[in-house]
Amino acid sequence: MRPGRSRIAPLCTNFTRCGGCHFQHVPYQSQLQIKEEIFASIFEKFLKDGTRIEPFLPSPISYGYRARARLFPSTDEEGAKVGFYQEGSKKVVALKRCPVLTEDINLVIEMLNDETNTAFGALAKYIDYVRVENDLFGNSFLTLSFTKRIREELKEKIRALSTHIGARFMIFKKKAQFFWQNELICFYKNPDLAPQGLFCKPGQFFQANLEQNRALVELVVSLVKEEKGETVSEFFCGSGNFSIPLARIGLEIKGFDLERKAIKNARENALKNQCQQNTQFFTWDLLSKNLTYNSNFKADVVVMDPPRTGARSLSAIMGLVAPKTIIYVSCDPMTLKRDVETLKKQGFKLTALHPLDMFPQTYHIETVAVLRKS
Length: 374
What we know:
Elements: H1 28-42, H2 44-47, E1 52-53, E2 68-76, E3 79-85, E4 92-94, H3 103-113, H4 118-124, E5 127-134, E6 140-146, H5 152-165, E7 168-171, E8 175-179, E9 185-190, E10 194-200, H6 210-227, E11 231-235, H7 243-248, E12 252-257, H8 260-272, E13 279-283, E14 301-304, H9 312-316, H10 318-321, E15 325-330, H11 333-345, E16 348-356, E17 366-373
Parallel strand pairs: 1-16, 11-12, 11-14, 12-13, 14-15
Antiparallel strand pairs: 2-3, 2-5, 3-4, 5-6, 6-8, 7-8, 9-10, 15-17, 16-17
């Protein structure tokens, strides 16, 4: 850390051992300054071409924000516990609580790690990982992913765990899902942009910082509005995080995603929010090295929100799609930079970068990039 920056005591006793956080010893405003400096250095050469970097958008809360977590089981003389991997290893750091996770998730972790929970202990050696999630309404969801197909002897142990934690459950081939109230996760709701809410099933992707996701959606909607286009193609649309709000402001939307279940969710969310008439959703392998142009891709504005690996193949054909504007939502500045270089060769100029802090206490940076046809 640069000399002169203040340090504070980390909230977590596992800080430096657990691989989840990087900045708990740094005041939140200083974290943002560090991220601003890193971000500006990555995109330095674009600034010389007139690209502007907007002020970093801080998270509404810097602790207790993360609404999903993937944990791992460990067993020792003290019994079965769940926790995160230690930095740089597969050794599990058992948790009592995690200050970055929401209170609802911490309560589920406490139930699993309770010494009286012999039902979880009986299952732990068969478990690959544990996923805990919660939503805008405080509903919690627990998924146990097993190393092998669930046989009858495991089903009895799963039933015993459901009784102990007071949850309903469903069993799939290699997974058991537990829930206390609703079976669907509500990850976004807005009186105008998604009045009935947007939903997905446990285990499907949604932004972990639900409060910051509101700001992200509103930012993307406002940027698309500024372009005054009538048609939008959203690539990596997931369950409709951007597609449904954009459809609600009257735009014609086509959404594309690799996951069939996500596309099914998006269609259901469009129906719930009464915008099915101006939405179409397609399953498409957008990460294929052999991705080719299709006339369905054509639109005035493109929104893309790829995984951390970026959108290499899609960026390479964007000149054929020929939107006047691209709104690129990225969770990794380095793959964003790589894809912007490709898009530049396709005739697009990076005009603005809007960085957001989606994951306080970590080095991760979320960005909304605006590119226009040059």
